[in-house]
Every structure is written in C-alpha cells, then in structure tokens.
Amino acid sequence: MKDNEITIGDLKKQVDAFVDERDWKQFHSPKNLAMALSVEVAELSEIFQWLSEEQSKKENISDEDLAKALGMTEDELFSLAEDVGIDQYGGLTKDNYEDVMQHIIDNFEDYKQTHILK
What we know:
118 residues; mainly alpha; Helix Hairpins
C-alpha cells in the first residue's frame, strides 16, 4: 500500500488491533513505549552505522531491512501517541513547523560551536 492510500488514523487503528490481538496493552505505558521507540530508532540507526555518506544512500541499503526498521519505529511512535492521547500529526501545522525550523536556525550556531567544532 502506498503512503497516499492510507491515513495515519488507519495505520494507528491497525497497530492498535495488532496490540489488542496479543494482549500487549498491559505492558504499554508512556515510559515503556518511549523506551521501545528508542530501541527501534537504534535498530534503524544500526543499518547506517559505519557507512560513509555515499554508502548510506538508499540504493546501498536493503529495502526490506530499511522498511522493517522504519515500520517498527512507526509502530512504537503510533502506540505511544495513542497511549498518551496525542494527535501527533494534527498538531503539526504550518505555524508549528515554522517555529521548529526557526528554533533550529536560531540555535544552530551555538550547537555548531559546542558539538561540531570541538
């Protein structure tokens, strides 16, 4: 299924049904889901670990491995948002996006001085 053929709400319902079928909600708390999300992000990062910028381009990565890691990360993110009652994409408005981008721009020089140019 393509991105433009399903909504975030539909995906969240599928993840929720998957969790219900396995009786995993008993283990779902914001802390546990945030920890699980960080594990999935680490597994996604591991795909690119030790690769050069050029090697990390998509054509050099297994589509299957990348799709699985991205899917697992999304599953945990959807579960966390559902558990805490956040409409994660409804809150992403043009104004919010511009505020986030401005924050990055405003703080980049400080970040560069403390993290990049050591």
